[in-house]
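User: Okay, second chain of the day. Same drill as before: sequence in, structure tokens out.
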Amino acid sequence: MVLQDKYVIGLDLGTTSIKAVLFTTGGRVVMTTETVVETLYPDPLFSEQNPEEIDAKARKAVRNILQNPEVVDLGVEKNLIGIGISSAMHSLILTDKNYSPLSNMLIWSDKRSRKQADSLLEEGTGFEIYRRTGTPIHPMTPLCKLLWMKETGYEAFRKAAYVMTGKDYLAAKWSGRAVIDYGMASSTGLFDLQSLDWDDEALRLCSVDKEQLAEVVPPTFILPGLKPEVQRDFGLTRDVPIAIGSSDGLLANLGSGAILPGEVNISVGTSGAIRQFAAGFPVNDKMETFTYAFDREMSVIGGATNNGGIVLDFLMELAGFTGTTGEFLEGAENVSPGADGLLFHPYINGERAPIWNAEARGNLFGMRLGHTRAHLARAGLEGITFNIYRIGKALEKMIGKPKQITVNGGLTRSKLWVQILANVFGEEVHVSNTPHNAAWGAAFTVLVATGEVKDFAEIKKSLPESFKVTPNEKDTQIYRELYSKYLELGALLEAQF
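Assistant: Same drill. Structure tokens below.
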């Protein structure tokens, strides 16, 4: 039985911030610390971060937990089982033989390789790579970023001893051994799901050797000892197990308890995603979804959207509204489903799933006199939801109807949106109030790795009760008809991107 006086840390390396969360082994949050990471935009298409800043702030986040006086008084270090790592996907760093960076870290939102992504799809090579790797062809992927580097003669690419993501870069800096988990490797577009090894054809295309890449390991892999200076930076007086963990998306599903077949998790904050664990590594024929390996037996299938809560921010600015998001949504519940003919395609930030088009653009259709700010707010919520539903339908074709839908993220603060979600899906929705899903998923990899718990499914025992939202049958029927129109208009729009 798990003891409540033992502790574990989930280290979440996000795009905008680095977060460390101290949990009891039963999942109770003891303390959280967070530090913002600067993103650099040297060109309108570029999105970069300083790898050394990531390293320093990750160490600081852990230190701020362990050296907090209240944490010290609890005797946490003595009872600390270990640290698990979650990381944002699709990053790329080039280093020398000593793992010193030769480039900034290109993050998922970097769009410099749009031409390379388009060429791969036009030639058909991209679909072949997708069918083997499960990673959609898109400028976000290290595959396309490496092609850009190769074709433009990027100096750091010509000199690089190692090609890394943010996760294996830190593993190498902290332990001296470059390892990468299946989830992070899988999201690069360079990893073959059948052989569970680096894909020879993708590497040949990018002119990258296997020797330049990290060793692929399961999420429960424990780093082989922290360097003494890293222990000191962490504020540790002893070596503790560090589990490599996985990517933030996969761990968010784990941390929400959506791990068994048929359990779907929807997470919507600034962006959003819908994901489901599956046995094996099935891949969508139309490239509507991703398939990322979690370990040698399970994958997570789903799709991420660029356009979640950011849509509401955009519409508020468009309307010249300076209040809060909650105030912006006031009155939208009094607008009928379909916003009196106002239909919104939410691709204001390009799009990943299900169309995987960085050039996608948003569209408000059906505007007329009489439409108000409340109509605009309702149309925004419905557009976000239709896009998530479309990804969900692609998932359903692959692995069947969901048995349970769980939802979390900042947008769940809107009761109206959760009800719209339930109505659009026509399914009961379980709203989770589990904080820090990805961090808890990361922390749980340590508990499995060290034998504190038997398997990943035991995470369900640590989750608080969720509340349920039931669909309104009449509204569901209305949304079925509106969704057909959404798809028809979307097809016309996509032809113009």
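The mean pLDDT is 96.

User: Thanks, on to the next one.
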